[in-house]
What we know:
Elements: H1 7-24, E1 26-28, E2 37-39, H2 43-59, H3 64-70, E3 74-78, E4 81-84, E5 89-95, H4 105-121, E6 127-134, H5 138-149, H6 154-174, E7 177-187, H7 196-202, H8 210-241, E8 245-247, H9 250-261, H10 265-268
Antiparallel strand pairs: 1-2, 3-4, 4-5, 5-7, 5-8, 6-7
Helix pairs in contact: 4-8, 5-6
Amino acid sequence: xxxxxxxxxxxxxxxxxxxxxxxxxxxxxxxxxxxxxxxxxxxxxxxxxxxxxxxxxxxxxxxxxxxxxxxxxxxxxxxxxxxxxxxxxxxxxxxxxxxxxxxxxxxxxxxxxxxxxxxxxxxxxxxxxxxxxxxxxxxxxxxxxxxxxxxxxxxxxxxxxxxxxxxxxxxxxxxxxxxxxxxxxxxxxxxxxxxxxxxxxxxxxxxxxxxxxxxxxxxxxxxxxxxxxxxxxxxxxxxxxxxxxxxxxxxxxxxxxxxxxxxxxxxxxxxxxxxxxxxxxx
Length: 282
């Protein structure tokens, strides 16, 4: 008893015949200027040929760093400024906090009124970021242990080493956290008008090119002046509220984003001290 042919079976059979015809007289083009080379394969040879192609694709080494960097919106960091791939500039201010609860009622009202005035004077968006991370006291402990070696008194040296060990164990057990407050100031030549979802999806295709880099360099001088004026305005407004702010340098920006994108690695591998962070003059 034979099974009647179905449309699916006929289509599958037709695809198999097409596959055999294509790989029986396959043409391999080695170069655009060279003549195609004929490759005659039987069914077994075609299967072996396809298997080798798939194995080659699977085992092909990829540059994982390039793949990861493609989805990072940052192009470069220089002149105390973050340059984005879409042409925008960002300056980051670190703001020293104040203890609001220790202020008197009159001082609290003045701070609230000053902050309200600061928000109303803004004609551009800003971003406030709060970073919580574990306290890094390695430099402090190294400084204490260096001083213990210089102690002429043996008892003082032992006491200094004991104090360093105590502080190190205390931080590990207590898990002391540190909070830092940042204010990000933007400068975009063409502010985005899309929705938040559209902007997020556009980050998935942020390939940088030589044309984009050249255009950013041409506009950098003029745009950086506008960004600097915005930073000055914000710093003066925060000073009126009683908040002290400071613009992060190029190295500080590199360290900040290195810690944000590599939270675990940054705890074990520190950045080298010989980074070239000199201002680039165009």
